[in-house]
Amino acid sequence: MQSVATALDRLGELAASPTVSRLAAAFEAAGHEIALVGGPVRDAFLGRPVNDLDFTTDATPDEILAIVKPIAEAHWDIGRAFGTIGAKIAGETVEITTYRADAYDGASRKPEVVFGSSLEDDLTRRDFTVNALALRLPKLELVDPSGGVEDLVAQVLRTPAAPEQSFGDDPLRMLRAARFAAQLGFAVEPATEQAMTDLAAEIDRISAERVRDELTKLLLSRTPRSGIRLLVESGLAERVLPELPALSLERDEHHRHKDVYEHSLTVLDQAIDYEIERGVLDSPDLIVRLAALLHDIGKPATRRFEAGGAVSFHHHDVVGAKLARKRLRALRFDNDTIAAVSRLIELHLRFFGYTDGAWSDSAVRRYVRDAGDQLERLHILARADVTTRNRRKADQLAFAYDDLEERIAVLAEEEELAAVRPELDGADIMRLLGVAPGPVVGEAYRYLLEVRLDEGPIGPDAATERLLDWWASRDA
Length: 476
Description:
single chain; alpha+beta; Hypothetical protein af1432; 7-stranded mixed β-sheet
């Protein structure tokens, strides 16, 4: 947290930038108010980078367009119905929104958009006091009607209005509370947290797409654990991601298996650390984080108590992949994300067989083939899944995975492992066997691929001989 004087200095520097100063001058000349609002002001106090420039004004959308057109390199009005006009000014993208005084009926998913006339009233309808801060331009007057600066100092999330009213107006704000708690490292004020619990069922009014977007922002924060905990403890997760609280399995009377929920949070923490440390993926990586959080969601459905007090979760990888696919579809994630996450969950146990005995080269090839373009993410997930407190066991697993990665690297260099395919393609198969396109070509190709995986490169001549032998034995 910066001092107020330091924050105001930062805001003054921002106001002097070409983008902000041009906007301020243009609106003042047109006789309209304009203020920098929300995240940029908050982040100036927190010493965080200021990325998005959001403004609010008493001008209507038509008036905003008339003011920005002469000074903008580009402009767009896709958010015009909600009072928002976008523009690119001096190379920076900005959004300018008319003061809002929205009306909610407590039932529909969207408010009736009503424009307001007062900056203070606009600020008090926002989600949290720390986001209800504005800097009037060009006079550089800080406007804080709800005590947002004090809450920034205290590192507390609180709603400007009564939380029951705020969350009743827009239930998505409850998910935003969890997201900001994680992003900013703040605590949610007790009355606000209680309202999240009391009104959790109201989240059902919110569209799957909006829920997905908030969950995504939460997971992409550096340390999402606190926000996820808040979702589970408030009962919100039960409504939007029920597979997660279901992981809090009651332990058997012998306490012989760990809390799967806590394990999953630890795997998520470790996956994020590996994602950053390894530096291969663009970070933050949503697919890694979804797979880490959901990798064990098949355990509740597969838990069995065995003789002697043991607990088993046979095939929880396959069941978990199906459950993840279903949940991510319901949340309207894109098909590529769904396919990648479910594939990683399906494969996340595969590595642990490596420690039971040395894998053959063909087993290593299959591991790479099955992972496909998710191999790096699978490396991260498998490593992160080691949460044992037994240091000796953890070291053994880490050394084993180091060995596996080294073998993959050697085979990749020798055999172009990332592009494993038979030496003969479909055209070759049809020519050699004298067949037309059809199922038999795919069957022959799969046979040759298995040969390639078992034995490595054998050359086109040997592959031809194998193919003809297979064809002859098939007709025998």
